[in-house]
TrEMBL record:
Segments of this protein annotated with the region Disordered: 34-54
Keywords: Coiled coil
Coiled coil: 80-114
Compositional bias ranges of the Basic and acidic residues kind: 34-43
Protein's UniProt name: Uncharacterized protein
Length: 143
């Protein structure tokens, strides 16, 4: 008898996850399934007029707790989705900035090479004309 009341409490406080299993078991076997047949979460029988005040109270508490947990889960999932989206945007922006940085480094190297070639060309032209000037610009005298 104690096992039966324990089983009834489980059915009364469980979610409606296996409701179809419960109803098909009632139709097929004419009895409720054992605790081990359904799994961890047991089906909940619909409450009618014959439900005891204690079982109604348990159901109300379970419903409120389930609703609170659902709401909390929804907010956590929403926060997680927002953070994942922000993280994705940050990663994309970081990748874009790294590509731009690499392009700027490449452009910087190319400009340095161009400046060196122009300075070398300038020095070669000056040496061929007989004037020796330093490659790098120096401050004019008298300034």
């Amino acid at each position: 008898m104690a096992l039966l009341s324990l089983q009834e409490k489980h059915w009364e406080s469980a979610a409606l996850l296996h409701r179809e299993t419960l109803h098909s078991s009632l139709r097929k076997d004419g009895r409720l399934p054992d605790l081990q047949e359904v799994g961890d979460r047991l089906p909940e029988t619909p409450f009618g007029r014959e439900a005891s005040p204690g079982s109604r109270h348990l159901r109300c508490q379970a419903c409120r707790e389930a609703a609170r947990l659902r709401l909390e889960l929804t907010s956590v999932v929403g926060r997680l989705n927002r953070l994942m989206e922000e993280n994705s945007n940050t990663v994309q922006l970081n990748d874009k900035l790294q590509k731009e940085c690499e392009e700027l480094r490449t452009q910087n190297r190319q400009l340095k090479l161009q400046v060196l070639s122009l300075l070398y060309l300038h020095q070669t032209m000056d040496s061929s004309s007989g004037l020796q000037k330093p490659i790098l610009w120096t401050k004019p005298e008298g300034s």
